[in-house]
Amino acid sequence: MTFRSFVTLAVLAGALLVLYRIHTDPYGTRLPIGTSDLGSVQEALAKLPDDERALVEAYARRSRGDVLPVQFADPDDPLTARTFAEAIELQRVWETKRKAQEAQLAELRAQHEARLAPLRAQVRASVVKAEIVTRNEYQARRNPYFYQQPYQVDTSPTFLTRIRVENLGNQPIVALRGSLEASDSQAYLSMDLCWIDLDSDEAIAAGDFLEFYCGHDYRGASQQQRDFVNRPEGRFEVKWEPRYVKLASGVELKSE
Prior knowledge:
Distance between the termini: 87 Å
Largest sheet: 4 strands, antiparallel
Strand content: 25-35%
Mean pLDDT: 88
Number of helices: 6
Helix content: 25-40%
Order of helices and strands: HHHHEHEEEEHEE
Low-confidence stretches: 13-22
Strand order of the largest sheet: 4-3-6-7
Shape: elongated
């Protein structure tokens, strides 16, 4: 065999080795473009360790098959992966950042809850009942004399809540401000239920409670409010966020 032939065979062998590795190495597998469906690359995906396969699948769901040029990608979350290897690296970085953010948010929530604790120990607010009523009925609930005076018939739907505020302490509460909200597992933002603002004319004796209607008769009734009335299990969580409490002794408690 001549030297030239040897070199030629070596080059061919090297090329075949490279092709073999590309064919058998799953990390170079290209992601499907324009879809999060990895069905077309399942054979290569199955060759990855479980943890790395999960990273590729998570990246595909998150990117939905979008591939952005590096110069146009978000530097904090670049969706630029074209192969399994790139997807694994980017998803690892993203999950590390997400865990750090979640830890920070958890700490902020803990601090917020700690500020609310002394106020919640003094007063509790809750929703006794939520209803969809006509606007006229809403007005009548807020004003017992409504139907005894001239009024315009209005049967448009309105969201109305019956709120109970309980004094859990051993002193009368002479002023109170705070909000009732409902977190919704199907919505990003919380749902406003009632802004509570009581003064000395509505003082609550120690161990006593006060009930009243709350709502906005001009806003109508959204689908979310209608769903809250029916209270599907596990969807809504009512949260009491007291901002200010003043006791008869003059002590003032603030959460902000």
